[in-house]
Amino acid sequence: MKLIIFDIDNTLIKAVNGGYYYFFQTFENLFHVRAHTMDLSQYEHLTDSAVLNDLFLEHFNRLPTSTEITRLKQHYIANLEQIHQRYKPAYRAVKGASDAFQQLKMSPEWMVSIATGNWYEAAVSKLNFVGIDIWDVVGAFAQKELTTKAQLLEFALTISLAQNNGIPFEKVVYIGSSIKDYKACEELNIAFIGISESAIKRQYLELSGATMLKDFSNFDAFLQALHWVYC
After folding, report:
1. Does the first or last residue of the chain, that is N or C, have fewer Cβ atoms within 10 Å of its Cβ?
2. Burial annotation 54-68 (CB, 10 A radius, 16+ → b, else e)
């Protein structure tokens, strides 16, 4: 058995108004302060939990309480669903992503997992918008203890191994979209395939040594990349 671990944002789905727009909008509406920037490159760690911690430290000089985290989660997801249903799609699938994900879930050769900086509830909502179901997929999602992509990948691998009865995988491949994803895979000795609709971003990651594809529209090409890529 081989293991394929997917990121979500900019890999399986694309946000219509940019990755964290709805997250920041919800934070500002609930707590009546404005984030100093929505540029994610200015944040050290890109999980929902870590970004919220940074925002609270900046504005309130403390970490959020469990009640505040729950409140923001509820409003954030309700905001996403309202925008998606009433006005315009909040997210769209990367071309071919839904079919590729479903085919790999049914494959006897591959186990599918998730490693994302999203809270679990947010991940489920976003993927439901584009017809991707992860109810039967194990994964690593944002939580207090997991703030880096390497930590998320390690946790996804651990729970996937448990689901595979502790039998080591013949191969592990992470499907991500950023240089941080690629560097985390290098750190953990995990194979990496990057997905990006941006030709400039693909070229940049390719120059760093990554295997890159535009999307999943050519499923045979994606399978070939899975076969040939190594860490």
Report:
1. C
2. bbbeeeeeeebeeee
